[in-house]
Design a protein that fits this description.
Radius of gyration: 17 Å
Number of strands: 6
Strand order of the largest sheet: 3-2-5-6
Strand content: 5-15%
Shape: globular
Largest sheet: 4 strands, mixed
Distance between the termini: 40 Å
């Protein structure tokens, strides 16, 4: 029985593994969707290209988002250091009315990752990646390099909400890829 308990997490990880997939017909890299739409904290245009994207939804008026600030920056630094193939991109909140809302949030947390400028949100579709009645914040949507949704913090109801679900899913993918990686010849 003890062996089963120890093997269960490994089975889950291996069953959720994804090897980098080839694009489907007509599919394009998500970096092309984001091209020219992202800025850093200083307002400089940022080119974003990665194997995985964690789209972050939050707002400067949200106390839970503010409380998560330091942990988020530590998580981001850790993922970049350990794997290097993920980018967090801040999308804001549906109640934002201008770029100033996004900049306010970025400055409040002194975040090191880019954000999608307000004027590009419609063009990129960043606010409608996951179709739920209400998107609870702070929350993430994990995308692969082609913009396919792999995981979301949200579900159909508030009871389905789990802020870190996409972060755990990304970690599981990385662990699987390490296990399945072929030796270099």
């Amino acid at each position: 029985m003890k062996r089963f308990v120890y093997l269960l997490p490994l089975v889950f990880i291996l069953s959720s593994c994804t090897i980098m997939r080839a694009p489907q017909q007509g599919e394009r890299l998500f970096s092309t969707v984001l091209k020219g739409s992202c800025s850093d904290l200083e307002g400089n245009e940022v080119t974003v290209s990665s194997d995985y994207y964690l789209i972050y939804y939050a707002a400067d008026w949200c106390p839970y988002c503010q409380a998560y600030s330091e942990q988020l920056k530590q998580t981001y630094a850790s993922m970049k250091r350990k794997y290097g193939n993920v980018e967090i991109v801040f999308a804001g909140h549906e109640r934002d009315i201008s770029n100033e809302n996004l900049v306010s949030f970025m400055k409040q947390g002194n975040y090191p990752f880019p954000y999608v400028k307000f004027s590009y949100r419609s063009q990129t579709g960043i606010m409608h990646l996951f179709d739920v009645p209400k998107f609870w914040i702070p929350g993430f949507v994990l995308l692969d390099r082609y913009g396919k949704v792999l995981s979301s913090s949200n579900g159909l109801t508030k009871d389905d909400y789990s802020r870190d679900r996409p972060l755990r899913y990304y970690e599981a993918i990385q662990q699987c890829d390490c296990l399945l990686e072929k030796p270099k010849l």
